[in-house]
Fold:
Amino acid sequence: MTDHVSESKHPRAFEPSVFVLNIILAVLGAIIGMQIITTLGVTPNTSLIGVLVAIALSRIPGAVFSKYRSIHRQNLVQSNISCSTFAAANSLLLPIGIPYLFGQPDLIIPMLIGATMGMLIDTAMLYWFFDSRVFPGSAAWPPGVAAAEAIYAGDQGGQRAKLLVWGSIIGVVGSFFKIPMSALGTAFIGNIWALAMFGIGLLLRGYSTSLFGIDINKLYIPHGMMIGAGVIAGFQILALLFKRRAHKVTTENDNNGSGYTRDDQDVRKGLTNGFVLYVLAAVVLAILGGVYTVMSVTQLIGWVIFAAVACILAEFIVGLSAMHAGWFPAFATTLIFLVLGILLGFPPVALALLVGFIASGGPAFADAGYDLKAGWMLRKDCGDHQYERDGRWQQIMAAVTGSIVALVMVLFFYKVYFSQNLVPPVDRVFVATIKAGIDASVVQNLLIWSIPGAIIQLLGGSKRQMGIMLATGLLILNPNAGYAVLAGLLIRVMVKRIKGSEYDTPMTILAAGFIAGDAIYSFVNSAFRAKWK
Structure:
């Protein structure tokens, strides 16, 4: 085991040994992301690929390869490939598929520029928000826990590695038999109240037809719930940030979850900067896309403000879901704001650019959260807030490297996919919704069901996020995951009652194994299916 705590300076994202490997893996991650999202409509988590490659290289004799023995360099590598995969698939290729299907290929490049801005702004905002009261480093962020535990296992070996390996094997086997092992593992480490609501939502969505005789999704009931919960969540965050007695960064150098490395002033500044950047990006997109030619000045201003606010609310919804459950309804959240844009009367072309702009950010925000959580776990024993901040910045630089490579790959290869009519499937839903419009009954349901969503979110408070998590479950069609979450919570409570807190760490490692095993199986299965699609 290497003494990583004694490293006085965090490894750099642009040092040759890291940068060259990151470029190579970013190309691989972008190809994987584009191929699988266009054929299967999903995006695989490739962070473990980066971890395994870095660990394998560290075992090769030689001074160059010995640098990869640093768990912090391994973390930079996993941050890079994970970001490039989500960037290429969700943040870039998905948005530009919308104008292509809309029959306006001349808008693809303006949309790509707008999506790139949205992706980078969301990444920056996560950097400004992470390890604050709004998005604590000590929160669950389950895929980040899995990545950190995989790095620890490769470095330390011993019982920790054995437990992770067995958990991964169980995760792969369980996933083969269609058991949502990632959901089961998340139940061991996430917020109990938030996950309970998530599990209930999953079951209600899965059995709404048999229980109530209606398909709640077709009636936009989950979307209404999320609108109400999302609005209240936004106000809760603002109330938290603008309380008279603002939270300060702790002066203790423990960095173990008792304090934060971002205070409320940092988050307020980040929120203000993010809003200004989104407004500027929306103006640029409106000019490049010619939106200003189809709307009045008043309507154009409204479109710009709505786009900026929608992007921030979407990242909050996606980020809170990812933080608590490791699952995030990015597509459904984007659809919600598309519906609201239709109700506000924006022209079809403006809607097409709007939905791509909103869709570009949320996944980047969530994925960066997972990566920074992994880094937070690896650095928390260093006992130095400055080291944590420095490492976090290096992770962001590694992520930006992955994003730039992803942009280049999408720019070069999008025509290859579109020429074969390969676009992310959700794009067809967005375009069909724009063309069909929304009738009065949908508006009524959105308004009615936003009320219980708001009430549940208000009652649960900002720490439990019950409204957001219930709506997240309602937006996802996976009842088996609902059973897995509730079963995992029951097991967790029983173990806690019988064994006490001494089993918290083993359960966390086992949970990380479940999540890692599920990710491995999903990646292999998706890659095989995408190849033969």
